[in-house]
Amino acid sequence: MAAAIEPLNTTPTFADIDRGVHRIMDPPGMLFWVWIAFCATLVAIAGALWTRQIYQGLGVTGLRQPNMWAVYITNFVFWVGIAHSGTLISAILYLFRTRWRTAVYRAAETMTLFAVATAGLFPLVHLGRVWNAYWLLPYPNERYLQPNFRSPLVWDAFAVSTYLTISATFLLMGLIPDVANARDAAKGWRKIFYSILAFGWRGTGEQWRHFQMMYLLLAGLATPLVISVHSVVSWDFAMAQLPGWHSTIFAPYFVAGAILSGVAMVLTLLIPMRRLLNLEQFITPWHLDNLAKVVLLTSLVVSYSYLTETFITWYGQDQFEVVTFQMRYWGPWGPLFWLMVWGNCVLPLALFSPRIRRSTVPLFIITIFVNIGMWLERFVIFAGSLATNFNPSQWGFFRPSITEIMITVGSFAWFLMLFSLFTRYLPIISMTELKEGIRWLRQSLRDDYYPDVSKDMK
Amino acid sequence: MNAEVELVGTFAEEEECVHAVEVLKRHAIAFRVFSPIPSEHLVHAIGRGLSPVRAFVLMGGIAGVLTGLAITVGTSWEWNLVAGGKPVVSLPPFIIIMFELMILFGGLSAAASFFLFARLPQFDPTPGWSERFGADRFGVAVKCAEDDSARIEALMREAGAEDVAHEDPRVRELVAH
After folding, report:
1. For residue A323, is it within any domain?
2. Please, what is the Cα angle at A225 between A237 and A300, to 5 degrees?
3. Distance from CA of B3 to the nearest CA of A (A)
């Protein structure tokens, strides 16, 4: 539970930062474990339904011809997209030495890792015969049968597994100095746990010299990786000759959408976390305001992509493409499409107002709608386009079964459970980098820095 | 016999620690620095140049590209089937695999070479280290002859050390074992 609100210390010291972050890692209370139990229950239900699906086959889902890709693939792309902003915030903003990044990047990186881990489950969930998943990897076999490296699905297997590995490496490497700090303050089993993760880090000049180079290069490698991974994900669709999918703009369009949904998810997580864990001292209106600006920028790019996509279809006048878009806008997919436009394009325009960017409640509501909108965007593209293929006699409408709905709910519970556990057992805010930029933190804590911050954000 | 002592200067501010490092370098005194933050000024003052981690990342990246090329071309030759009229070895799609493996191998090389050069994992105590140097203080440790300790302590105090502790390396070894 949130403790009584104390006035913020506008001139925090290194010791204050340590105390504040160590406090988050204190043993959690009963309410936290109730939350974890709730999430674990939903995960268990999803696991049970997946087990039933493996046993009985994909017939228990709503997947029918022509809609053989729908909710599971939507979830896959949604979670990969969510993962992307973590790398944007931690790697790209690191390369640009963006000052406001320090307090929020660890949460974003953590979100990235768990989002990719969640995304990686969905191609497996989607497989009718999951035990054959290893066929995607090249391995010596007696029939000399190898994966087709011209297939986007094989590119995807390489791209997503590389992304998972590099995200995990980036997070774990960045954690070392902070975990060493936590080790020195911890007792009991936590001291042993942190000692293992800190690898004996002492913060010598030599260690920092190599650490900084390693971190810089990892950021440099992660930056093109993030662009490539979602481009490859988009080619899963764009390489297919299906109206609504076969488009050259998919790669930049998907990357922009990924960053929009990811930054929105960072805000969705940070706003309640900031309040529940009393992190107002470290995550200030300055940080939320800048994240909101990124949401606004990427929302405008996504809106432009929607218009471009529509223009290409109108200008090309391919009759199948035109009908697909008519069905998307005015047909059975219309309500979902317009809700998507509302969430991704219209509502974020409110972020032009500094007052809204600096008030947590409206900001939280907008980010929730962006998350819904971005999920719907993928669903409308994947399921909607397949439902209106080249053969009008096959046209239909996809309805998910309870299996797909509960596995989707379970994936959110799985993600939130892992993220919540991380916040209470590992430093969710980078102490070393926050200390490095302590003067910017102090500046952002001054009352006159943002004079029009609403009371709920203070 | 002139015994060796370990002098450990504690600094509250990064600038003072950087200044102490510069002074010690000027007097050709060997030292070890501890910092709670990734200070570029401090790394620059130590003056050891750029980390060799970058060379390993380059080698890892090149190894990744070559591995990607070998896997894609090799398996295509092994499964020598023309599909869709495309060449068996179609380089443009293979570049994607090479790119991903370049990043993967480069990233893992960065982590591995960091462990190698930073000498991690390391579970023995580092001479001069204190928990405060991971929290809110900067530290400079100098191993010197007892006769010389007064001069070095004076240099560190002049540079802004708030405290200079004398440690006997033999006692530290006894405690460690």
Report:
1. yes
2. 65
3. 25
- CA dist A354 and A350 (Å) reads 9
Q: Is the pLDDT of residue A5 over 70?
A: no
- How many angstroms separate the Cα of A72 from the Cα of each of A52, A120, A334, A401, A403? 16, 11, 21, 11, 10
Which CATH number covers residue A396? 1.20.1630.10
Any CB–CB contact under 8 A between A170 and chain B? yes
pLDDT of residue A4: 47
Q: How far apart are CA A111 and CA A118, in angstroms?
A: 10
Q: Please give the residue that has the higher pLDDT: either A152 or A447.
A: A152
> How high is the ipTM of this complex?
0.91
Q: How far is A142 from chain B (nearest CA, A)?
A: 11
Domain B4-50+126-176 -> CATH class:
alpha beta
The total number of structural domains that make up chain A:
1
Identify the domain containing residue A232 by its residue range: 14-457
Alpha carbon distance B177, B174 (integer Å): 5
CB of A431 closer than 8 Å to CB of A18: yes
Q: Residue ranges of the domains in chain B?
A: 4-50+126-176, 53-117
Comparing CB atoms, the residue among B110, B121, B122 nearest residue A214 is B110
For chain B, the C-alpha Rg in angstroms (whole number) is 25
pTM of this structure: 0.91
In 3D space, the residue among A320, A315, A311, A309 whose CA is nearest the CA of residue A381 turns out to be A309
Asked whether residue A5 is assigned to any structural domain, the reply reads no
